[in-house]
TrEMBL record:
GO terms for molecular function: DNA binding; endonuclease activity. Transmembrane segments: none annotated. GO terms for biological process: DNA restriction-modification system. Pfam families: Mrr_cat. It comes from the Bacteria. This is Restriction endonuclease type IV Mrr domain-containing protein. Residues 188-245 form the Restriction endonuclease type IV Mrr domain.
Length: 309
């Protein structure tokens, strides 16, 4: 798919409270109300005449100016403009034709509409869903706009997200995070077996799991017993500084006879160099790379630095 271009970008609310969202998203249209202004008058793009019509109808001067701006934006927008809206937890975007048509009599979905050049899309150019929760607030705050159309100030950010283009500051932060994660792998390998076991325990307890048995203990197949209070899910963790596939398989065979629904197998060094393999449901292998990322998320960087020093 070619790069998405846009000279300007606008947010549009598709109907009062989003009442026309389903229609517009499904049929590939944009719709706007302001029924009190005839299509013929709006087509003239005569700002003062349109504004005065609103005022004559009892609209305040400030509101009349705002409504006029929305109408002129809708009629002036050509195919180079990107239109966005928010629906179903996603950002949707499209380019629309310049031509605006009056809504047929009997159709209560606004007074005017225009056709999308391509259908509304909630995907980036690379096929990633544009979840609202993953977008910057400087873009998603427009979802709370109380009127119908507003300008998107940060068009560069919007285009970068639509085109899956890394932003310089974000790229630097990601690189720094990845470098730190790689460095933590080396620190984890320096931990004594006691500190490594404590480290694994801290990762789980910081993420909501609660230890129900003593750390270490005398059970042959268990180092840490856990419970997730929010779901009452139970799990056990086997911690090994160094391990191999044969040893892992022994603990895996014991998993089936235990009451827990999940098993975690944590290690930082492989005896024979080959990665551990497991297709068993409910079993997670936590090697050094994954543990380093979990440590970052759990805020254990300083703890690792201190223990490895």
């Amino acid at each position: 798919m070619p790069r998405i271009q846009g000279s300007k970008a606008y947010y549009i609310k598709l109907g009062p409270g989003g009442a026309w969202e389903t229609t517009c998203l499904n049929e590939g249209t944009l719709r706007l109300g302001h029924n009190e202004i005839p299509h013929e008058l709006a087509q003239t793009k005569d700002r003062e005449a349109i504004r005065q019509r609103f005022i004559d109808l009892g609209v305040s001067s400030a509101k009349a100016s705002d409504k006029t701006r929305e109408l002129l934006t809708f009629y002036a927008g050509d195919e180079s403009v990107i239109w966005i809206t928010f629906s179903r937890g996603l950002l949707w975007w499209c380019h629309a034709m310049a031509e605006v048509k009056p809504t047929p009599d009997g159709d209560d979905r606004g007074a005017r509409w225009k056709r999308c050049v391509t259908p509304w899309s909630s995907f980036s150019v690379g096929g990633a869903l544009l979840h609202i929760s993953a977008l910057s607030g400087r873009l998603t705050r427009t979802a709370g706009y109380r009127q119908n159309i507003c300008n998107i100030a940060d068009t560069d950010y919007l285009l970068a997200r639509l085109n899956d283009e890394p932003q310089p500051d974000i790229a630097k932060a990601v690189e720094a995070r990845d470098n730190l994660s790689t460095a933590l792998v080396r620190l984890i390998a320096k931990l004594s077996w006691q500190d490594f076991e404590l480290f694994v325990d801290l990762i789980f307890t910081s993420s909501g799991w609660r230890r129900t048995g003593a750390l270490g203990g005398t059970q042959k197949t268990v180092d840490i017993e856990l419970e997730l209070p929010s779901t009452n899910e139970r799990a056990f963790v086997q911690v090994k500084s160094a391990t191999n596939q044969s040893e892992f398989d022994q603990y895996l065979s014991a998993f089936g006879s235990r009451p827990e629904t999940r098993m975690f197998y944590a290690y930082h060094t492989l005896d024979k160099g080959c990665a551990l393999n497991c297709a068993e449901k409910g079993v997670a292998i936590l090697g050094p790379e994954r543990l380093s990322k979990m440590a970052l998320n759990a805020g254990l960087t300083d703890w690792l630095i201190q223990k490895a020093s």
